Amino acid sequence: MNTIKKKLILLFISVFLFLITLNIFKPIFTAKNLIFPYSINKFDIVTEYPLTWKYIKILYCITCFISIYLLTNSFQKYILIKKIKIPKKQKEEIIATDNKLNILLGFDEKNQNIYITEKSLYQNMLVTGTIGSR
């Protein structure tokens, strides 16, 4: 239910931005003539090729809405990624007196024991350290 609500809000925002964009470009859509002065032969696309001009406007509207929807969707995902998850507090030290197999690896900066658990022993592992760190 929550995802449907988010998608509807996203769709509403996209339609709103799309209508703003169409309002900005309204003079171009309602123009009676549109001359391309940079072509070899100057021509008016509205009067000479009305069907082509109609398809260009439809294609513009479709691609404009899709791009606005994708941009708002990516913006929404960017905000959701920024939520910081607080990790659960882990055990500070694994006690070696358990019935499980643990190997003492060494000590960390706080002088606490570091153990390799039994589950880790069945995996590929590489343990490195500086010279003299045991």
CA-to-CA gap between the ends?
Answer: 55 Å
Strand content: 5-15%
Q: Low-confidence parts lasting 5 or more residues at pLDDT below 50?
A: none
Average pLDDT value? 77
Outline, from the CA principal axes? elongated
Q: Specify the number of helices.
A: 5
Q: Specify the biggest β-sheet.
A: 2 strands, antiparallel
Number of strands: 4
> C-alpha Rg, in Å?
32 Å
Q: Which range best describes the helical content: under 10%, 10-25%, 25-40%, 40-55%, 55-70% or over 70%?
A: 40-55%
List the helices and strands and how they pair.
Layout: H1 2-24, H2 26-29, E1 35-36, E2 43-44, H3 45-48, H4 50-81, E3 102-107, E4 113-117, H5 118-121
Helix pairs in contact: 1-4
In words, what does this structure look like?
This protein is mainly α. It has 2 domains: 2-81, no CATH class; 88-123, no CATH class. The protein is built from 5 helices and 4 strands. It has helices at 2-24, 26-29, 45-48, 50-81, 118-121, and strands at residues 35-36, 43-44, 102-107, 113-117. The chain has a two-stranded antiparallel ribbon. Strands 3-4 form a two-stranded antiparallel ribbon. A hairpin with a 6-residue loop joins strand 1 and strand 2. Helix 1 (2-24) crosses helix 4. The protein is elongated, with a radius of gyration of 32 Å.
Q: What's this, in brief?
A:
By secondary structure, the protein is mainly alpha-helical. The protein has helices at 2-24, 26-29, 45-48, 50-81, 118-121; strands at 35-36, 43-44, 102-107, 113-117. It folds into two domains: 2-81, no CATH class; 88-123, no CATH class.
